[in-house]
Each structure stands twice: as structure tokens, then as C-alpha cells.
Specification:
With 260 residues, the protein is α/β, with parallel strands linked by helices. The chain contains seven helices and 15 strands. The radius of gyration is 17 Å and the shape is globular. The termini are far apart.
Length: 260
Amino acid sequence: MIKDPWFTVHSIDEHTFAISEYGHWEKVHSFLLLGHRRAVLIDTGLGIGNIRSVTDQLTSLTIDVFTTHVHTDHIGGHGLFTDIYVHQEDRDWLVHGIQGLTIEQIRKDIGRDLSKPLPEGFNPVTYTPFQGIPAGLLKDGEVFDLGGRSLKVYHTPGHSPGHLCFLEEPSGYLFTGDLLYDQTPVYAFYPSTNPADLINSLERIAGIPGVTKVFGSHNTLGLKPEILEEVKLAVHFLREKALIRFGTGIHHFKGFSIQF
């Protein structure tokens, strides 16, 4: 059993783990997938705790970090790893810094509404998001063999230009980052977002066959695949009503919501 003052580790199966940050208002999940030859960590969380100390307890394999997108709450622990991968469209933010939010706002968001004590040594006042050059780029349609299991890359822009989802085969686990999760809205109103792209990406993942579980990066850990049927209905509704272009505000659907 993994014990950590900040992270909560859930075993999804024998070789798949969710590393969650329930002490922060965003309730962020990162995911560690172990193969026979290599391991992949999907995102590295907020950077409040030391996620490397958790992954080191779970595996001795070399870990490749696959980034769903370059927002603060997904790249916080990137500096603890060597092999970081991202889509080309989000590379610039990883290298040069996230645009659109001031460092003052980022620091305010990282330290507010906490339900757990901050780890010793972490100070929101001096928090600085990771910046660095990735080891490589992830492309739509690529399939990575981890040894006994594989991970397929889906380019799903909308929440960010280089947003990615990942399908693990043969289990049918779909990791959707910030494209799809429940309880709080999926955001499509930031300068970096594109509502039309987001709807197209939702439609795309809703058509992926064989999905058995949907793992978003926030809130409920593991959604039933039936939510993808609701996504199809939502996409049709939004297009029919032209809300993608003109519908400001929050639109609620069964199991999830979108804020334009």
C-alpha cells in the first residue's frame, strides 16, 4: 500500500494506477500504466507534492511522461522526469511558458480551497509552472507498445490546441484529460480554447469502439462508457442549435457539462 501525505493512489487493475490529488479543489488525476518493458505516466499533476516519490514506489521501470495538454495542473511534476512528450501544438507553451494567465493568478489558484495540508517545503507564493524542452512529440494515431499492452494517441484539440487522449488496449481504458469529465464544466472559453474543435473532438472519442471505462483528469475516477452515448446526443444538440458559435454560458447534459 502506497502512503503519501498529498497523493492518493488507486489501483485500477494490477498494472494501472490513478495518482490523485483530492486535497486540491481541482481533484486532479494522473495515471501510471505499467507494461513489461516500459511505463507511461499520463500527466504529472499540480506539482504540489512529489509525484516521483509515488511512481518510484510503484515501478522500477523507466517512465515516459505523456502530456494530455500543457496547463498548470497537468505538468506540475514534469521537472521530476527526463522523458517528457507532448503534441506539437502545445510544445511552445511547454518550452516558453503558459500564456493567458498571470503568475499571480496561477499562484492564487494553486493555493486556494485546500482540504489537506500542503506538503512541507511547498509554497504557493513562489510556485512557478514547469518549462522545458520535451524529449519528443506525440502524433495522432501513433501506437506505443509498453510490452503486453499498447497505448494509442488521439489528437483531440479544443480545450487546448495540442490536447491528447489515450486509449489503452486491450483493456479499453480511455484517458480523456480535460476533454471529458464530470461534476464541473469542461472549459471552452479560454483564449487557448476552440469550441468547434472541442465538439469535433468529443464526437471523435464518442465513436471509439471497445471503450470499457472513461478516465477524465478531474473529479470522479472512472466513468461508465455510457457517457459516450450522452456525448453523441450533446454534440448533435449543440450543432443543431448553433450553440458552438453563439451559446455562451454553461450547457448541462447527462453526466457532464460544457462552458463556452
